[in-house]
């Protein structure tokens, strides 16, 4: 560590305000779990133990035939239905013994006999959920960059103009996006040089390497829930159910971690303290929330957005494109913002099927919602509380 550095490390509590799902990249297919719809239980199977149990009761051959029928489309039965018909409903103790984990799902998630594919959240080997420090650090970095962009009107003017000029030419827009990434690095370096009066090598790396966040761990053992996902489209005032389910950390859960930063590096971009750093993150988040409030005006949407008014940031899956992009700080004119962002979205193969050319007042034109204990939520809202400063 440099003699010039002033590293401050503070413990914090992360309070989950709305359901959070940090994807592990692991998904469950229909034959990976047993869904007990009556009791809202999902048992994630340990396939080895499950097969051993079937072998012990002389049902393995029958189950293998069921799998073959399922694979060829000759049956649409779930494992629970097969089990109920061929074995009977197993005791909870047996179900837990053949499972890697037992997860609850809310009643509203069970609109079918199966939950289709389930996306699991990050968890430890014992199944305990946690939030990777890298997720929070990514939001911090994006917020600091957005803060620097806000300070440089000439940069904003130049790059908003460039995006508007290239948005109708695929090749030129792709080049503009690449150039923008390089320009952001130069912007940060020049901003540091202007503030300090000296040009430093790798000043951007030093700034962001000076920030570290521990993994954020649950205060006590907690259970996650499998929740459904809905889309709310601008102007339609209705929720569109989707065959998508995510394992989530639910509201009122508290987790703990530590945030460490080299204050001397932050001061080079005008951030004087950890508290000010958090204010910058909150301002970046509230820019997005404020933008949503302008266009999502249905009763459900307004209630969901009210939950986000005091959040520090948005984390995890299913919370849309706007929180990730650094295009939003470039635009004062909302029409220009929509035109550019929908053009960028249309470049991405994963988004083509969503027909973003239809976007008018905001792009993307949907809020990703879920429901827990009878209440609608937008995913990902958390509040960070320092334990001391």
Description:
By secondary structure, the protein is of the alpha+beta class. It is built from 13 helices and 15 strands. The protein has helices at 47-56, 60-71, 79-86, 92-97, 133-151, 153-166, 170-196, 203-209, 263-267, 274-295, 299-306, 334-347, 349-352, and strands at 7-16, 23-28, 33-36, 41-45, 99-105, 118-121, 211-213, 217-218, 225-233, 239-248, 254-262, 313-314, 366-372, 375-378, 381-386. The strands form two sheets. Strands 2, 3, 4, 5, 6, 9, 10, 13 and 14 form a nine-stranded mixed β-sheet that branches. Strands 1, 7, 8, 11, 12 and 15 form a six-stranded antiparallel β-sheet that branches. Helix 5 (133-151) crosses helix 10 and helix 6 packs antiparallel against helix 7. The two termini are 22 Å apart.
